Amino acid sequence: MAFLRAGVAPISSCPNEIIAKILLVTYTSWLDEAGDPTEILLCISQARTLLFPTRPICRLWRAVAISLTQLWARIHVEWKREHRALWLERSGTRPLDVYFTVDSHLPARWELAKFGDVVGEQDLFLHSSRWRSLSIRNSGTPEFFTT
Fold first, then answer.
1. Cα–Cα distance between 100 and 50 in angstroms, integer?
2. Residue 19 and residue 12: Cα distance in Å, rounded?
3. Please, what sign has the CA dihedral across residues 25, 31, 33, 39?
4. Which residue has the higher pLDDT, 134 or 55?
5. In Å, what is the CA distance from 74 to each residue of 4, 14, 37, 116, 129?
6. Which one of 6, 48, 95, 138 has the fewest beta carbons within 10 angstroms of its own beta carbon?
7. So which domain of life are we looking at (predicted)?
């Protein structure tokens, strides 16, 4: 109970390696639950809430999360450019899993042009050698085509 009087929670003295393990296990369990890679965005959103809430848990946890390149190696083409750039930076040199969802309500040529435009932007194109996988999905079907 001394920690209550001191105003310091025991978790604050947790080693970085333990914090990293907690974050990775939590993130991995979200990915395992999602199953369908389209749910990755939801997982990322939840992870962002956990890792970067309005009032961060603490600077240490945030710093550990930012240093974990595994958390940042899944990129969805439809994200805003600044989000992709942030994920690319934080993923370090880790191989990337890139996801692209084709809107089945639009002509295929438009969607492919959109994909080409986004990939052609400097952020993704410059990192194409790091792509471990590229998953393309039609929004009208649950299956992904993965290379």
1. 25
2. 10
3. positive
4. 134
5. 39, 27, 10, 19, 15
6. 6
7. Eukaryota
Segment (H or E) for 40: helix 40-51
Of the candidates 130, 100, 135, the residue with the CA atom closest to the CA atom of residue 115: 100
Q: Report which residue type is found at 132.
A: R
Tell me if 132 sits within 8 A of 96, measured CB to CB.
yes
Q: Between 17 and 43, whose confidence is greater?
A: 17
The pTM of the full predicted model, rounded to 2 decimals, is 0.66
> Where does the pLDDT of residue 38 fall: very low under 50, low under 70, confident under 90, or very high at 90 and above?
very low
Lowest mean pLDDT among 10-14, 111-115, 141-145: 141-145
Query: Does 41 have pLDDT greater than 90?
Result: no
Q: Is 47 helix (H, G, I), strand (E, B) or coil?
A: helix
Q: Is 90 exceeded by the pLDDT of residue 75?
A: no
CB 135 within 8 A of CB 37: yes
Q: What's the angle, vertex CA 27, arms to CA 49 and CA 61, rounded to 5?
A: 60
Helix orientation angle between 40-51 and 16-34, rounded to the nearest 10 degrees: 150
